[in-house]
Structure formats: structure tokens, C-alpha cells
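Cast an eye over this sequence plus C-alpha cells and walk me through the fold:

***
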Amino acid sequence: MTAEQVEALFTGAGGQYRFARWGRPIVPVVFGVEDQTLGVIKGACEAVVALAGHRMAETDPELGVNLMVFFLRDWAELDHVPGLEGLIPDLGRVLARLAAAQANQYRAFRFDADGAIRAAFVFFRMDDALAAVPAEDLALGQMAQVILLWSDAAFAGGSPLGRLPGGATVLRPDIAAVIRAAYDPVMPVAASDPAHALRLAARLGAAG
């Protein structure tokens, strides 16, 4: 992967480069699924965190949990989640926009003072399209997308997942390499200068 390709993964539609990774251990909680699916999601989280060389924990001393994953049938259901308005700014406006667009997923992040990811919120509205996706694929793809702050367009042209000849679903090797390199201890937890992409690209070989 070239430096230009890496830069594109973290450059938004307005041309601004913005990179961030988690600075604290990840503590996930999942709402709206059965125990079997819960295990799949937590397993995917563990796999991606291990790939990054990061950490998970039982609790966040400040937030309790810092990665919340919600499964729902209608965006209006989130109107009744206690405390969510304080976690997602302008929640009502966000929900109206998602409903109008008939969106089936949404991710939001909060950040620490140093720019590192402090918390992430993942929402799935389980329409027919998402219901047709195997739980393993859905979980792995979403965990890959919250382990770093990718640009909105990073996966517009294709999924972060690939499939082995035997049929197993895995992260694409190029995306896995970027995740490993991004969590190299010598790299910053956040960056807004595109020169960061040059450093990240230079580490891809070493991280592989």
C-alpha cells in the first residue's frame, strides 16, 4: 500500500486528514442481541484488538464501558435509551437524518484531550440487507471500523473484509497491516498532518 493510499483512508470529503486510535483499553457492551450473537461480537472485538496489539479491560475507570454496540429495528427506539442524548450530541437531529436516509448503520466517536479515541458507539438498524449478512462478518467488519478513526470514504468502494479460498472471512491483508502499523508504540495516538500517512506507510512492512 502506498503512502497516497494510506492517506486516502484517513482523509475526509473536505480534504482534511484526521487519524486517531484508542488510547485506553476497550471495554465493550452489546445491546439487543441474543447470547450467541453476543459471543460472536465480543470474539470479533478480541480478535481485532489482539491484531492491533492493544488491550481490553473489564471496566473503564471513568466511563464504565467505552464501546457500545446497539442492534435495533427502528431508529426511533434510541429516543428511549436513558442517557444517550448526553453521549451523542444532537441525538434527535442525528436520528432524523438517519431515518430520512434509510440508513442501516451509524458510528460515532468521542475523544480524549490528546485526540485518542475515548469511546465509540455503533448502531445497527437491522433491515433486510443487514439481516442477510452473517453475524461473524458483521461483527468483524464493524470492529475493524472502530479500532481506528477511518475517513467516511475509506470503505465506500469495498469492505474491509476478504474471504479465504476455504470460505472463511478475514480482514483484508492491507487493512490488517494498517491497523498493526497504526498501533506501533512509536506512532502517535492522533494526527492531523498528512505527513503522518508517510510514517504509517513506512511502517507497514515492519508491522507485517
